[in-house]
Each structure stands twice: as structure tokens, then as C-alpha cells.
Amino acid sequence: MKKRELVSKIMSTDLITVNHTNNLVDAEKLFKENSIRHIPVVNGDDIIGMLSLTDLLRITFVDDYSSEDNVDTAVYSMLSIEQVMVKNLISVKSTQTIKEVVEILAKNEFHALPVVDDSKLVGIVTTTDILNYLLKQY
Predict the structure, then answer these.
(1) Is the separation of the CB atoms in 16 and 120 below 8 Å?
(2) What is the pLDDT of residues 59-97, one digit of tens each?
(3) Is 100 in contact with 90 (CB distance < 8 Å)?
(4) What b/e readout covers 75-90, taking b as 16+ CB neighbours within 10 angstroms?
């Protein structure tokens, strides 16, 4: 296993983001259409939060998210993305090692980190990216 492999090798760079002024219905649509679980929340060029599919599921009463039935949008209309997203972000740089990223994820309760270089969002790295990297090593 390569010990100094950079996170830039495994991070996703084809980013899907949501603006803080969008609503939760828009966010849910992005999750479903793109089969993703984490979306960086932006205000212009600045990342201000991270929204996860788990965040949405916590505020709804969904038994089976994969069904075609839409979640009652009444719950979504009562809250904004900014109220639901994680605000106190920990980010990493693309020049950090995968090991450093794993250490951060292991110490915290989230499963995705924004990758930020020079105050610009350049990617996202998830636990799935790390697991896929580890699988390739075997």
C-alpha cells in the first residue's frame, strides 16, 4: 500500500453543489438524480456547509427512501438548507495524504470532507472513496 498517496488521487472533482438559497426539495432531487449522499452547500464561491442525505432523513418520517413516492414537502418547507446542513466544517487540502484524511474521518462522525485549496472548493472525499481505494490495493 502506498503510504504517501495524496487525497487528490481519490477525491471527486465533478462536484454537485447546492446554493444556500435553494430549498430542501431541490437538495432531495439532487440526491436522488445523482445517487449521491453528500452535497457541499455554497454561497457564491464559498463553501458554507455540507448537507447529507442522512440530514434529510433525520427530519422526515421516511421508511423507504428508495421508493418513488415523494417525501411530504411540508416538512421541507418548514426548514431551510442552512438550518439542516453541517456548518462547522472541517476541510482538507488536495495535498494532504489519504492517511491524514482517514485519521480525520475516524475521529469525527461524518463521512465526507470538502477539499479546499486556496479558499476554493476543488473536490469532496468520502468514506466510499477511501473504501474503493483500499479495495484496489488488494
Answers:
(1) no
(2) 886 555 555 445 557 788 889 999 999 999 999 999 999
(3) no
(4) ebeeeebeebbbeebe
Per this entry, what is the length of the chain? 138
- Give the Cα-Cα-Cα angle 108, 111, 114 (nearest 5 degrees): 95
Q: Where are the alpha helices (DSSP H) in the chain?
A: 24-34, 53-58, 73-78, 81-84, 98-107, 127-136
Domain 7-136 has CATH 3.10.580.10: yes
Q: How far apart are CA 113 and CA 11, in angstroms?
A: 9
pLDDT of 70 reads 54
- From CA 90, how far away is CA 110, in angstroms rounded? 10
Q: Closest Cα partner for 38 from 61, 11, 60?
A: 11
Cell 492517511, located at residue: 99
Give the whole-angstrom CA distance, residue 77 versus residue 119: 31
